[in-house]
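Quick one from the shared queue. A colleague (R.T.) flagged DUF4430 domain-containing protein as missing a structural entry in our internal table.

Convert sequence to structure tokens.
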Amino acid sequence: MTNFNKVLRQYLLLPTLALFLCLFLGINAKAATGGKVYVTVEKFTLGQGYLVEPTEVEIAEGEKASSVLEKVLKANGYQYSLYDEVWYLAGIKNADSGTVKVPSCIQSKWGSNLSSKSGKDLFQYDYSSQSGWMYFVNNESPSVSADGYTLKNGDVVRLCFTLYGWGGDLGCEYDKYLVLPNMDTLIKRMAIFNANKAICVEKGYQTAYNEALALAKNMDAYVIKDDKSNQSQMTAKIQNAYNKLPSDETVVQLKAEKAAAKAAAKAAEAQKILKYTPKAPTLKTVKSKKTRTATLTWNKNKKATGYVIYMSTKKSSGYKKITTIKKWNKITYTKKKLKKNKKYYFKLKAYKTVSGKKYYSAYSNVKKVKVK
């Protein structure tokens, strides 16, 4: 993490100093080449988890961190307020769940006294005189405001609410501070899951994601002791969660396998259609032998299960199914209660049922009859 002087420039809203740093100390934004970044909005210090879970965001070449953060907040339905001069987030509306459970690791260093607060918005100085929103890129707190930081492909951007220590509770090194592991690799894997959720859930990664989510938002589960005696243990815990989640390469493979399976299933179905679809029957005759009736006859098809008969008052349109013949060897049907002296058109299909699925032939020829 950066030292407190860097954090203070960002956090205490000193626009003049920030501009001085940009203009006279040669602090330049990093060059971007487009691609994608990984973004989170976090309220871990309040025990409220993620406001926005890890998500992938496509970036344009030269795009600033402020632009990406604004897009993510808007995409998730959050309105926000900024201070003037430089891009500094004053607060986010409707971002406070109202339930605060400060992690024990924070209470052990700063106590548990919280100032009163009302409403659902989460702004600077809420709950503490040292609180506010800070952004991090690749686990560092940049020394420029977010509108002066140019992102590059693969960056991890975190917008975090600090409660105590001017970011000390987020790992920024000043006076009292927490020693926290770098979670960026895990965040990337979680974002990959969310960007490809359908295939990841289908392939059984939901449990791994739930475990990673529970770990990431629980600071007490991975905070490193001041003497760093548990650092390797915490690193291994994060690595284990990371290993269980899919990578970009894994997702590509999963999608390719699904596409191949879908193509194979489609090919197999095409073979079934070719094998089981019966030939179109021939409608031999349609005669009105009795008043208000029409009798159809057609050729027999031993490979069919039955036949479906259609009727219309127009030759080329308006056909509706009037009956299904469920025996392949029945080759005649009489339609009753027709209107006298009216013309009707008939056609039919043969069908075959295999394992509960019906395969239909093309339509037969059309024949008309004038009803007696």
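Residues 4-178 form a domain with the Ferric Hydroxamate Uptake Protein; Chain A, domain 1 fold (CATH 2.170.130.30).
The first helix runs from residue 4 to 11.
Added to the table.
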